[in-house]
Amino acid sequence: IAPGHDAPLDELRSLAAEGRRHIASLQSRYVEETSVRTLRIKHNGMLGYFVEMPAREGERFVRPETDSPFIHRQTMANAVRFTTAELSDLAQRIASAGQEAEARQAALLAELAEAARAEARALQAMAEAIAGIDVLAGLAALAETRDFVRPLMSEAPVFHVEGGRHPVVEAALRARGEPFTGNDCRLGGEGEGHLWLVTGPNMAGKSTFLRQNALIVLLAQMGSFVPARAAEIGIVDRLFSRVGAADDIARGRSTFMVEMVETAAILNQASARSFVILDEIGRGTATFDGLSIAWATVEHLHDTLRARTLFATHYHELTGLTARLPGLRAVSMAVKEWRGTLVFLHEVGPGAADRSYGLQVARLAGLPPPVLRRAGAILKELEAQGGPAAMRRLVEELPLFAFAAAQGGEAPPVDGHPVLARLRALEPDTLSPREAQELIYALVALAREEM
Q1: Do the beta carbons of residue 188 and residue 275 sit within 8 Å?
Q2: What is the pTM of this model?
Q3: At what angle do helices 358-365 and 369-385 cross, to 10 degrees?
Q4: Which of 1, 7, 39, 258 has the most CB atoms around it within 10 Å of its CB?
Q5: Are 215 and 157 in contact (CB under 8 A)?
Q6: CATH number for the 7-118 domain, one of 3.40.50.620, 3.40.50.720, 1.10.1420.10, 1.10.260.100?
Q7: CA angle 345, 349, 354 (to 5 degrees)
Q8: Superfamily the domain 149-363 falls into
């Protein structure tokens, strides 16, 4: 209970917390009233609190005829000890102040609880109203400060968003002083597909694109403005998401099993009014098994459910379905290669990605160069021959240490390597320590240029 609400409680708290100050205040008053400058209030285990003054000063207060508040307690060789009714009362109150304060506070809280209980309906209605105002004020502030737009809600099964953004990722980038690249998304409507097949390399932004559009649906239907330049959203009956990878050890489910259970829930419950995002269906099993499941899932979503769907995948074979599924559109995340480095543009454009750039992403992640060269050689062989038969031949025929050159070519013959040429031309006995050190740095730089 806050100070100032109840005077008796404040006094008890003050006594409990500042007992010494109250005793000192009483002592000062007694000194002033008696003119005995050496008067002191002391404490011991036998008498408790008592007033002590020199014997020559205290004799006049010991006499019975003296009209004095001091009650004689003890005479000593050089001092006389007294008590007073006021001091006894103060000592008693200090001793019990803590317990009394707790009891007083409990009684006041009980009264408050009873008063609140009598107004429970009104308080609950007020709390709900304040909560609603708080949410709406927060959404309004968000819309104003983050440049959100009011979506047009309609009965048509469409999802048309211009310059859509992910509000959380955008906030994180803004904190670092970096911009977020907005993207359009048009599902449903005349001449538009209701299912987008999103391809592109890892780290290009496929999952972010899926999530941001799901969040736009959620924000729009809860009455909020949305992070976009413009938006028209047909009412959604359910929002389904199959994104990310995680197992369920407690239930004995592998990552792939969890993925299939969640996919099954979507395919069994979604309707033409639903909004679905699916990320990398089928990646947790054998290549052709996963491709088959993803293929059939796309067909079911397109032909049977007809839900507005964003389907991210690395199975580029699925993009061929656009030729026979009229509501399917292939889009991709734009990337550029610049001086051997992969640059992610985070832009969604029409058409399928030409490849997944897995080796380039692996290089960015820091895989060792020998592993990357070996992976490049295997990839070339698989792309050249294709199919499971090629995989078996590759395992049998490709030499374990046949490292290909990094980035676009075969490894140069060892005999012609420029580092070896420099080494052969050396006369080690003629080098000074300084020259030897400079040569080592030069050879290291040359070797790095050749990688």
Answers
A1: no
A2: 0.64
A3: 170
A4: 39
A5: no
A6: 1.10.1420.10
A7: 80
A8: P-loop containing nucleotide triphosphate hydrolases (3.40.50.300)
